[in-house]
# Entry
Amino acid sequence: MSPVAEIVSDSIETKRYGFYVPISDGFCGAFSTQKGPMFFVNGNRFLFADPNWTAEIVGEVGKLGEAGVVEVRIVEKSKVVEFSYQRQEECPADIWSDPKSGDIYEWLKDRRQDMSFIRTWTDKT
# Structure
């Protein structure tokens, strides 16, 4: 039995990952790179694996799972980046929805040290 079609491995494109969400003054999100996943806030970039930056909530209106505004501060050495975003309410009709699903800070916190996520979001050459 012969294959239906042969594909030369050099012709297969590498899958890249990424997303973005609107924030108070632009966009933030993440994308895959050869060095691993990169988080960005407008023009500022932060490599997930780099231990020299931290993210923290500095203010919020509403509780996790409820709609509200979250203010986040990212500090990398002497650089400080602050932004706010609208947290989405948990969707009762979505069986995969949980209180963290509409919260970019919680997403970042949960995946920052997740080696499986970091491997998946590291581009292959």
In short: The beta strands are 18-23, 26-31, 38-41, 44-47, 53-61, 68-76, 79-87.
